[in-house]
Amino acid sequence: MKHVYKKVLLFLFFGVTLTQMLNAEQAFENEQYQKALWMTTRFYGAQRSGEGPNWLLANYSPTNVASKYMQYNDAAITGQSYLKDADSDGYDLVGGWFDCADFVKFGQTEFYSAYVLLLGYSEFPKGYQDLYSADYNGYIGSDDFTWESQKGVPNGIPDILDEVKYATDYFIKCIRSSEKFYYQVGEGGADHKVWVTSVFKSGMPKSLGGEREGSRTVYGISEKGTTMVAFCGASLAAMSRLYRQYDASYADLCLLKAKMCLEFINNRAKGNIGAPGGFYGSKSKYEPDVCTFLVEMYRATGEQSYLDQLSNYNSYSFGSKTWNHGYTFCYNNTEDISYYNMGMYAGDTLAKSHLKYFVEQLYKPKNGYILNVKNNEWGILRYPANQAFVYGLYKNMIGELDEVDPYSLGTIEYIMGSNDQKYSFIVGFGDKFPRYPHYRNVYLDDSDSMALCKIDEKHIQLGYMVGGDLNPSKYPDDINNYKSGEGGIDYNAGLVGALGYINSIINPVSTADINTVVYNDVQCYLYPNPVVNVVKLQSKEVGDVRITIYNVDGDVVKTKDSTWEKLRAEGISVADLNNGSYVLSVVAENASATKQFLKK
């Protein structure tokens, strides 16, 4: 009976005939949901800019280079892209994720996507496995990148955290200080001029999207950009909480930078901005994203003061239900996760009622079409994928996790290939899937000709969800069709979250092989502050410790293995450090602390 109900729901949701739905292949073996999550998570490793490693490009050097561009081949570095990203004063901005099929790092989607991925793991941790390491050495070493071979080498850390940490490493750089924030690297117009891999394009002139003469254009702000700063801060706060058991020093640095993000928001003019060139418009609201950020700061620190600040922002749409069919959860509409966070962790009953309204009214399918996307054909499947994730969050909020919500399951199964064409919209998943997605790097070809592109079968399990179609028989599978054939980091984010929710119920992960060390805060006092030559730590603790000192850019400037006894008696010399602010992190056995000091 469940399957019939789910198929009828799909009929209502996707607007195809009931006969088509009842005849469609509906269910998958449990392993297939795990595989889908593995693919769509590892996809982010194929989006890595900088040194990587990027598993898709790991062994790649330019191939089939167009003769007119051969002069630029001398600058290519095997497997790496954009190693010169920096501000005009040399401030390092290498790393992060490419936005989609192209190679610009857009803040509108990058900060949002990282947070959505972390929220999914935070709420449904049993859905996420540890199947490989952050450096992909099992896949790269064997030159086998498939699910079936199981060549990944687990490292004791859930794969989702390995993937998002690559982004938060970059986010740490983005919030340079409480007065300077970087939100974009690269220009969309220049980036679109040549159809080649990121490895080759990096060596091309800036006018063609490369960095031959130096860094691509970098965009920084000293005010506004509130939503991007908020999601950057929320991601760092969430990472500080979720990664602490693996690396307390890194968690401390993330929290420090998250606090800088909040100071930026509190002390600078508020508002949102669009991407230069018009590739992403400016959001009308920033308040829901600041609310999300404040809740994450509360969760990371346990300090009530962050929840007390919610009253400054949480009236942005409460008391009204004026959303229309143009609204659905995406990078540009984020009330859903704001309501979830406030309802779940701040006890806001009005927020709970708003989220209930979303799942029981706004997102309920009516009249044979998907709500909120009837006038939008660009990347249409990202919206139901995002809504499926919201249904999972709602079920978690009300404590109904005994079985998967049929709306979430039916929607994700449709994307996986449970439709009348048995067509999967995830590149590499199933038997029928897009062979010509609008995605440059997967073709490993630098001929600047879409007509010559063909996916290397070794890298076919890309995990890239294309924009797709509500009628799989009409999906064109055309490399030139970016409206349906392109995807992006924000497309995959909601899908990964929904798959995490589904797997947490039908495939709960055994945590036996996951590092479960929990670090407790340790009481200690740093003095003198400001300091000239030697800083000391006063504490009742005993035993071995490791000291790490960071500058405000997040760079490690000093490390030292010591003991609490020596820290009390001798301290740590900082005479060689430049004047300025620093953070000292101390990690002992199952305990850690972070202190800020000024060097004069």
Quick structural overview:
The protein is of the alpha+beta class and 600 residues long. 36% of the residues lie in helices and 10% in strands. The termini are far apart.
Topology:
Blueprint: H1 2-14, H2 18-23, H3 30-42, E1 105-106, H4 107-123, H5 137-142, H6 159-174, E2 175-177, E3 180-185, H7 188-191, H8 198-201, E4 218-221, H9 226-242, H10 248-267, H11 287-301, H12 304-308, H13 335-345, H14 349-362, H15 382-397, H16 406-416, H17 482-485, H18 489-506, E5 520-521, E6 525-527, E7 534-538, E8 544-551, E9 556-563, H19 564-569, E10 572-573, E11 580-588, E12 591-599
Parallel strand pairs: 5-12
Antiparallel strand pairs: 1-3, 2-3, 3-4, 6-7, 7-10, 8-9, 8-11, 11-12
Helix pairs in contact: 1-16, 3-18, 4-6, 4-9, 4-18, 6-9, 9-10, 9-11, 10-11, 11-13, 13-14, 13-15, 14-15, 15-16, 15-18
Protein model, in words:
This protein has helices at 2-14, 18-23, 30-42, 107-123, 137-142, 159-174, 188-191, 198-201, 226-242, 248-267, 287-301, 304-308, 335-345, 349-362, 382-397, 406-416, 482-485, 489-506, 564-569; strands spanning 105-106, 175-177, 180-185, 218-221, 520-521, 525-527, 534-538, 544-551, 556-563, 572-573, 580-588, 591-599. By secondary structure, it is α+β, with helices and mostly antiparallel strands. The strands form three sheets. A five-stranded mixed β-sheet has the order 5-12-11-8-9. Strands 1, 2, 3 and 4 form a four-stranded antiparallel β-sheet that branches. Strands 6-7-10 form a three-stranded antiparallel β-sheet. Strand 8 and strand 9 (556-563) form a beta hairpin. The chain is globular and about 75 Å long. It starts with a helix and ends with a strand.
